[in-house]
Amino acid sequence: MRSFARILALGAGALIVLGLYGCPFMPDQDDGGGNGGVVITFEPRTSPENLCENLMSAYKERSIVEYESLLAEDFTFYFSEEDQSRPEIPEQWGRNEEIEAHEGMFDGEYVQTLSLDFVYDDPVFDEEHFDGVDSLWKVEVTNMDLELFGTPRSHPGEAPQLYKVEDGQVTFRFRKMHYAHSNGDPIWMIAEMEETTTSSP
Fold it and tell me: How far is residue 108's CA from residue 95's CA, in Å, rounded to a whole number?
């Protein structure tokens, strides 16, 4: 088992790999997603629950455009404390790094199979992170199962390997924006992801 961060940081050298597996995913190639031709629809971004569902759907479709649309401009991913103890992994990274990493993970040329599934609680107001201006709502994600079978771009000649997270835990923090969907409901964005999974050696 590996933590989510270890998969993001797979193949890291002096710097965390950004775009771990190569070029951005091309929609006209076989994505290996195993959807059997089923067309996945995305929910309007009008609730934290819809964003959670869209995140899982973005993995199924390998849609970097959809994944990017979920993240606030100041989005931050916080790596687990144990992962931060590793010299190649930082305390956090931002939206650009997160998108670039997923462009690599969604690449069908280097990644043969990719799946993500998790369970999420109801959103609750995050008083701990309320600064009087910016209010965030927290969703605890549990039972996160992430599997990736592929070859790192840094070692393209190597045989593909399976990397996985089992029963991972991540805290999502959502922000209600000051603009609305066409149906009149406010838009929500993911402001933070904080990994609490402890990785194995």
Answer: 22
- What CA–CA distance (Å, rounded) separates 165 from 176? 29
| CA neighbor of 60 nearest in space, from 113, 24, 1 | 113
Instruction: Tell me whether residue 199 is exposed, middle or buried, using C-beta atoms within 10 angstroms of its C-beta: 0 to 12, 13 to 18, 19 or more.
Output: buried
The owner of tokens 């402890």 is 198
CA 187 vs. chain centroid, Å, equals 19
Strand, coil or helix: 63:
coil
pLDDT tens by residue, 143-201: 999 988 887 766 777 788 888 888 889 999 999 988 888 888 999 999 999 988 654 44
For residue 4, give Cα distances in angstroms to 47, 128, 195.
24, 24, 8
